[in-house]
Amino acid sequence: MIDEILKDAQQRMDKSIGVLQDNFSKIRTGRASANLLDHVEVDYYGAKVPIHQAASVSVEDARTITVSPWEKSMVPVVEKAIMTSDLGLNPSTSGQVIRVMLPPLTEERRRDLVKILRQEAEDTRVAVRNIRRDANQDFKELVNDKDITEDEARGAENRIQTLTDEHVGRIDSLLDNKEQEVMTV
């Protein structure tokens, strides 16, 4: 039972870090990246789909993302989806190709992005700690039901703490790397 609880906790912690990595990839660093547009959704024949399912997204140079919709009729729809997204980008269309120019980041904007990064990391740390708390609660319930001894519960709590420390370390490492990426001009 202890191993099942630990395995579940590890899976949940890994998912939390996966969400953090996904959120970090959406925060631009001043360099063009195809995954910057991943969360932009396009109305494709009545269904909302990610932009990469309706168009080819590629990086032309360090500051330009090129979007080529599969169908000519989708060009204005894709352009509008990029414009109305929370990224604050203004695409320009030339024929069937949509170019998204990334403006250079100001120092103030970089600091704001770092604040956002730190908040995302702290939210993930809180999520990991909540998972630890849930696992510890499960251990206490097992002790109360007399399924495990208090010594086994203490050992399990030490193992879950070690797991928590590892995941918090990974979060800190991801944050440091992304902060350096954002602050590099």
Automatic annotation (TrEMBL):
CDD domains: RRF (cd00520)
Coiled coil: 114-166
Keyword Coiled coil in record: yes
Chain ranges of the Ribosome recycling factor domain: 20-183
InterPro entries: Ribosome_recyc_fac, Ribosome_recyc_fac_dom, RRF_sf
Keywords of this entry: Coiled coil, Cytoplasm, Protein biosynthesis
Predominant localisation class: cytoplasm
Record localization: Cytoplasm
Family stated for the protein in its record: Belongs to the RRF family.
Role, per record: Responsible for the release of ribosomes from messenger RNA at the termination of protein biosynthesis. May increase the efficiency of translation by recycling ribosomes from one round of translation to another.
Entry protein name: Ribosome-recycling factor
Organism of this sequence: Spectribacter acetivorans
